[in-house]
Write a structure and sequence with these properties.
The chain is α+β, with helices and mostly antiparallel strands. It is built from 5 helices and 10 strands. It has one domain: Glutaredoxin.
Length: about 210
Amino acid sequence: MLRVLVVSLVALVAAMFLLPHPDRSPPADATLLPQPLALPPVELVDASGSPMDLDALRGRFSLMFFGFTNCPDVCPLTLKVLADARAELVRRAPQAVPQVVFVSVDPARDTPQQIAAYVSNFDSAFVGVTAADERLAPLLKALGVTVEKHHHGAGAYSIVHNSTVYVIGPEAELIAVASGPHDAATLASDFLKIRQHYRAAHRTPAA
């Protein structure tokens, strides 16, 4: 009887080491919020020119990034990293792939059609949206998005903005932020940890 018990205990200990365990280490570059942050209502315009609000983000996780199609460096670099991170997640955890939402902060120049064509250069699954400056302002303020417009005369201007990626949870709330510079593999791993933490805290089977 004792021998059977010893063998059973050895087998149990071995199984504990051999079975995969959830990765409970903190994200490397992303910062988890202590509590999800509710976002203000905002009426966006999607790639087809139709109205879209943040309720459209409910039911799944999203990675949100703010930029503009004429951006010479930060936007293409960040969108490429997001595309690579999403591809990494498709390979590693296809059941946990988030949607990527690109929000243009240059509605005067970025039409919905231009935005759609722009983001499709990186990943055809990316969602592109925009909104008038006054409608977008409350969302930018809530998320702490830095956007500075510098006028150069004759209607010309440039825009300076941050490269932060915002992780939106399935209740359309901000749950984490990832500041740049970004690395695709790290961003993918961080997202899985954030998703795992959120699901454990909320006991939800959310996608």
